[in-house]
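User: Some background: our group keeps a shared notebook of sequences we're curious about, and every so often someone picks one and asks for a predicted structure to add to the entry. Today it's my turn. The entry only has the sequence so far, pasted here. Could you supply the structure so I can complete it?
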Amino acid sequence: MRKNTLGFGFNPDETEHHFYMVITPDEVEVYERFYWEDGEQVKDLQDKNLILKMEKGKFNKVKSTLKKYMNEEMVKRGDKKGDLKDGAFPIERLLGKEIMVLLWGIEEINTSLIDAAVKSWAGFSNMDLWWIFTRTNAANGYYKNRMGWRKSIKYMLTEDPNGLAEVY
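Assistant: Of course. Here's the predicted structure to add to the notebook entry:
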């Protein structure tokens, strides 16, 4: 098992770049951060670093899928498993990119399409998800900026013309 990992695979000794998820009873926020503090995390929890703000009910529709996916990735990397419970925790930068594609994809869709989005998302490789995230984040990463590449993710995930994607 790797040492010094926090949350979902984040090791501040390797890099300070990470995602920081805050789950409250009402909503979920995700920040992309480039700074780590020992102790309480307050620096960089600013609006300019906020890349997702989602109603918790919608997040709960993918919570078990995300937890399973992230924990399987943790095991592959030799890290301890994490939990998606209320509170705040860091997520390793590449894993954060992977899950953000799904979260951005469902942020504005009808909940009846979430299963289709999960199926399509599960069909992408890690490298595909990194590329999609990086391209989208460069153009439309800010949580209020839901157009362009970011808007296209919802269509990409919910309109699988072949219906071949497997449920994760």
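Suggested note for the entry: The mean pLDDT is 87. Residues 18-158 form one domain.
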